[in-house]
Write a structure and sequence with these properties.
Number of domains: 1
CATH class: Alpha Beta
Order of helices and strands: EHEEHEHEHEH
Strand content: 15-25%
CATH topology: Rossmann fold
Number of strands: 6
CATH superfamily: NAD(P)-binding Rossmann-like Domain
Number of helices: 5
Strand order of the largest sheet: 3-2-1-4-5-6
Distance between the termini: 46 Å
Length: 142
């Protein structure tokens, strides 16, 4: 694939396994990191990337994933503090160009933004989607 990217996905729960599987199937080179090796069973059968069992809070694990070569790092664990720390380390120490972090607690988004880290908030996205559907169901009323 001409536009193949090297992508590190931190967290292999439901979201991480879907992202890693889809990115791999699109032809990207993917490394997925999780402290719980059993989570790798959630990856699709077509996943052709690498799996690293370890704590992404440790620099040695991020080095093993060759984060310094990554075009992108996605921090999608279920822990906001871990996502923030890994995102900062990827951006500052490993100088990863594109860093995205999942933030479960919407009130914490400002902290990430102050540090220049792009976020995705599943709760905010869901609330917006619910309100859009509700508005369309109610005939466009406010």
């Amino acid at each position: 694939m001409a536009n193949s990217q090297y992508i590190v996905v931190v967290g292999c729960g439901h979201l991480g396994s879907i992202l890693a599987s889809r990115l791999s199937s699109q032809g990207h080179r993917v490394v997925v990191i999780d402290h719980d090796e059993s989570t790798f069973s959630g990856l699709s059968g077509e996943f052709s990337g690498f799996k690293i069992s370890g704590d992404a809070a440790e620099l040695s694990v991020l080095r093993q994933a060759q984060t310094n070569r990554a075009n992108c790092l996605l921090a999608v664990t279920g822990e906001d503090n871990l996502n923030l720390m890994v995102a900062q380390v990827a951006k500052i120490i490993f100088q990863v160009q594109t860093v995205l972090a999942r933030v479960r607690e919407p009130g914490r988004e400002a902290i990430y933004q102050d540090l220049g880290i792009a976020t995705i908030s599943p709760i905010e996205l869901s609330a917006t989607a619910f309100l859009q559907v509700l508005q369309s169901q109610l005939g466009g009323g406010k």
